[in-house]
Design brief:
mainly alpha
Length: 145
């Protein structure tokens, strides 16, 4: 009997690569989401500090008001982008879980086939040892006869 060869090894490798690719994509999207959230927090912090500063002239107050409006628009845009990223992450997580389940199924099948192979190999080895012992006994019995 030769060495164990899992017949679906290439498929298992493909599924592992697919899972790794999805993990990388998930990490990348998570990083993008973190950056957006950080930018939102920075803008809100800037807005908060500007809300309490008092400008001496009407013209400067109008410029400040326009800038605050721009900050609000940026925050709203970033929140929408953040929501889209969260949806993408949720979908990607589902795909990742599915890929992990597919990989685990194949790994369990591989383990089961390997265990069966090892058991058959042990039986074959025991059978050969038994035959060897029987031949020795028969040879030994012929010498005395």
């Amino acid at each position: 009997m030769g060495k164990f060869n899992f017949t679906l090894e290439k498929l298992l490798d493909f599924r592992r690569e697919n899972e790794d690719s999805l993990k990388q994509e998930y990490t990348t999207l998570g990083s993008e989401l973190s950056l957006k959230e950080r930018k939102i927090n920075e803008l809100l912090s800037e807005k908060k500090s500007l809300m309490y500063s008092i400008e001496p002239t009407v013209g400067r107050m109008q410029i400040q008001r326009n800038y605050l409006d721009e900050i609000n628009q940026q925050v709203n845009r970033l929140r929408l982008e953040s929501l889209e990223l969260q949806k993408g992450l949720a979908e990607l997580l589902e795909r990742l879980v599915g890929a992990q389940q597919e990989r685990k199924v194949l790994e369990k099948l591989e383990t089961k086939q390997k265990d069966e192979f090892d058991l058959r190999l042990a039986h074959e080895e025991q059978k050969e040892l038994d035959e060897f012992a029987n031949r020795r006994i028969l040879k030994g019995g012929e010498n005395y006869g």
